[in-house]
Amino acid sequence: MTPRRPRWVWPIGALLAVNALLLAYVVALSTLERNEHADRSAPPTPGTPPSPSPKRKSPACTEANLDGVGAGLPAAAARDARKSWRSAVDPVYRAACDQDDPRLAALLEFEGSAEYFHTAPCPECSALEVVTMWRDEFLFDGADLARLLEARPVLGQGGLTFHRGDAVAWFARGTHDVPGQWSGLHPRCDLDDRCTDLT
């Protein structure tokens, strides 16, 4: 006659098997998250194409905020000032709302090149690599830019400044020949001394 096993052996064995499966799952998940974080934090190498933008849902957009622009001017001059600034700000706002990274990249080519965009982090990077860097390194995407442009701007001698949290965007004042245009963006102004000096 074979000895009978105690009843508690089967539940303990099943519990150990479940724990081993859970541990394997947690380790696999942790490794995957670590690899994704490393991929996101690695700066783009000049000359390599940026990672494609994932399709994202557009935020509920209204319009860029131009409150206070033209204040103190006669009504017709104030209207002209808002119209002029809207022609510079609205294309950026619409591209941000649509989460359209290629269009944002085209708009940041200040004076025809990303290297002249005030806050481009590397002269060798393409405009699309700069936009990708904002998204992947600073977790600052089109939705964040749209919210930034919904903040009340400050109009100064050099142009229009939008500030929300640690993010700052600049639009350069135009001339009679050249319209105003998007000239700078710091997703994290607090991390750059040049930015904190300007704001």
Radius of gyration: 25 Å
Q: How many DSSP helices?
A: 6
Mean model confidence by pLDDT: 76
Provide the β-strand percentage band.
Answer: 5-15%
Approximate helicity band: 40-55%
How many β strands by DSSP? 4
Low confidence ranges: 36-55
- What is the structural class? alpha+beta
| Order of strands across the main sheet | 1-2-3-4
Q: Overall 3D geometry?
A: elongated
Largest sheet: 4 strands, antiparallel
Assembly status? single chain
Order of helices and strands: HHHHHEEEEH
First-to-last CA distance: 88 Å
Descriptors:
44% helix; 199 residues; alpha+beta; elongated
Structure description:
This protein has 199 residues and is α+β, with helices and mostly antiparallel strands. It is 44% helix and 10% strand. The protein contains 6 helices and 4 strands; from the N terminus they run H-H-H-H-H-E-E-E-E-H. The protein has helices at 9-41, 75-97, 101-107, 127-138, 142-148, 193-198, and strands at residues 154-155, 159-164, 167-172, 181-186. A 4-stranded antiparallel beta sheet has the order 1-2-3-4, with helices on one face. The chain is elongated and about 105 Å long.
